[in-house]
Structures are given as structure tokens and as C-alpha cells.
Amino acid sequence: MMAANGKKIWMDGRLVDFADAHVHVLNHSLHYGVGVFEGIRAYVTPRGPAIFRLKEHVARLITSARFYLMQIPYSAAEIERAVLETQAANPTYPSYIRPLVYRGEPALGVKNLTGKVSLAIAAIPAKKYLGEGSEAGIRAKISPFRKPHSDALPSYAKAAGNYLSGYLAGADATLDGYEEAILLDSNGYVAEGTGENIFVVRNGTVYTPGLESDILLGITRDTVIRIATDLGYPVVQKLVSVNELLSADEAFFTGTYAEIAPIKSVGHNVIGIKAPGPVTQQVMSVFQRALVGKEPKYTDWLAPVPQLAPAMTRTRR
Ligand SMILES: Cc1ncc(COP(=O)(O)O)c(C=O)c1O
């Protein structure tokens, strides 16, 4: 699991010591879940440390914040630079970077929009997310808790409050002895894991649920669609039934933290013959090389981390 520590945390333009990164207990985001965040990864590559798909993560953070009426007081370029500086100040690899946009001042009242919008960024050492055995396949269960419909909580915004169903599903799966939960959408189709998208493979075609299943449009999902397509596999985004999942040749999760995690079984059903299956294995191998800058075709996805952290002097607009 995640080791929740690092050396410095970037808070509104300043790198502060980990122990001093505080906000007021009556802040609006803590009480009502109105915070938006990202999960980003940095790896060591032959050309030095680099952040994977930084631009796309920052773009999604801005979209998520806009939906919840939080105007981030920094431009996309400034946020990208701040993420790079935070990573440079916490030079442990592989690393997990967590930017969070929130209203950090005391301001109770659910429709209170007065609290100042803040940005904090942490970079902490990353470990395996879905258990040490995840490369050989994880055991998942279909959760009794479903994804909320996007009419209620839009799934394309990566918002703190969206994670309540994931929390319940994840806790239920863990207490039942599984490594991950699979949440269905409100119509009973397969949606995603608690922090991952899901893919199934059948007869050489790769399938994954689309936005109509109230999923987060994952950046790893997008990466895997591109890699699988480049490898020559047809990739289809469609409603995926539980039946299709249970009878698939292969299934796997994708996520920034989980990377690609093959699914060995769902409940009592074993998926395919052996996890990871051949298509999963092929996609995983290209993906893992791309993350560490060893696939020339995909090096544009990596943003180099500067060696030294220059002082962040920018002030709020
Ligand atoms: C609910 C949910 N779905 C999917 C994902 C995968 O998204 P990404 O690949 O951008 O990390 C995540 C992780 O951020 C998530 O929390």
C-alpha cells in the first residue's frame, strides 16, 4: 500500500515540510467531499527521472475543478511546473504524485462557495497497489455497491466525493478476502474497480466499458487503448455485461497506481486459462517499457523531472 510520507509538500506556491502541511478542520472540502485530485506516477528512465502523461493529468485536474466551480489560481503550465518541482524535491522513485484542489479555509454550509481555492501537491514513494502477487493475477469480487449514476455524480470529474462508493466496495472486498472490487453501473453493467478501469479480452478483441457506464476516463485506459491498437488488436468501447466478464478469455485492471493488473478470478469464477493471458501479457510488456522510457514510440508521454528544485516564487493570481 501507499506509504503516506514524503519530504516536502507544495502548498499554494510554497514547498513546506511534510509535518507542517496542515489545513483547518472546518474546511469545506473535508465536510462535503468537494475536492478534486489526480494520481500521477514518476519513474526512472534511461534519460533520468520522468513523469508519465503529466499534461493529461493536469488537464483532467482542471476539468474536474471547473465542474465543481473551483477556479484553480494557476494555469496548466504553472501546475505542470509545480508538479515537476514537487517531484524534484522528493526524489524517490517510483513515485506517486497527488495534486489536490480544495477549499481549505473554515467555511461551513454545503453551498458555500466563499472558501479560497487551494492547490496542494505531494510526491510519495510508490509501492505495489493490488498486492505483491498482482502480476500473476488478482482475485476480485463483484461489489454489492454500485457506481452512482453520472446524473448524480459525474464520473468524469475525479472528485473526492465520488470515492465513497469505491470505499464501501473496497472495504467489502477486503473484508471478504479479495484483493479488489468490481463495481457495476446503475444498470448492472461492469463499470470499473475502486481505482482502476477494467478490460476484457475475447477472441482476440479487447473490450472496455465506455463513459455511459459512469466510469472515470482513465489515462492508463487511454494508454492501453493506444498500445493495444498499435499492436493490432481491435479495441471496442461498449457496455460490458457480467456474463461477458465471467466468460472472458482474459481480464485486467488499468490505473496509474495499479498500472496493469491481470484479473485471475471474479468471485468463484476463474477467468481464462492462466493470468496474465497472452494479450494482457503483450500489452503489459509494452506498457511497462513505455513507463520507463524504453519504448521510443511513446517517449513523448514522459516529462523529464528537473534535477534541482528551483524555489517556487509564483504568487496567487
Ligand atoms: C475510479 C477510478 N477509475 C479509474 C481509474 C484509473 O484512472 P487513471 O488511469 O487515470 O489513473 C482511477 C484512478 O485514478 C479511479 O480512481
Short descriptors:
globular; 2 domains; nine-stranded mixed sheet; alpha+beta; eight-stranded antiparallel sheet; D-amino Acid Aminotransferase, Chain A, domain 1; binds pyridoxal-5'-phosphate; D-amino Acid Aminotransferase, Chain A, domain 2; disordered C terminus; 24% helix; 317 residues
Description:
The structure is a single chain. α2 packs across α3. The chain folds into two domains: about 10-125, Aminotransferase class 4, branched-chain amino acid transferase, N-terminal domain (D-amino Acid Aminotransferase, Chain A, domain 1, 2-Layer Sandwich), CATH 3.30.470.10; about 130-295, D-amino Acid Aminotransferase, subunit A, domain 2 (D-amino Acid Aminotransferase, Chain A, domain 2). Mean pLDDT is about 95; it is low at about 310-315. β8 (about 140), α4 (about 165-175) and β9 form a beta-alpha-beta unit. The chain contains seven helices and 17 strands. It is of the alpha+beta class and about 325 residues long. Pyridoxal-5'-phosphate binds near residues 195, 197, 220, 254 and 256. Pyridoxal-5'-phosphate (PLP) binds near residues 166, 196 and 216.
Condensed summary:
The protein is an alpha+beta fold. Helices cover 24% and strands 27% of the residues. The chain has two domains: 8-127, D-amino Acid Aminotransferase, Chain A, domain 1 (2-Layer Sandwich), CATH 3.30.470; 132-295, D-amino Acid Aminotransferase, Chain A, domain 2, CATH 3.20.10.
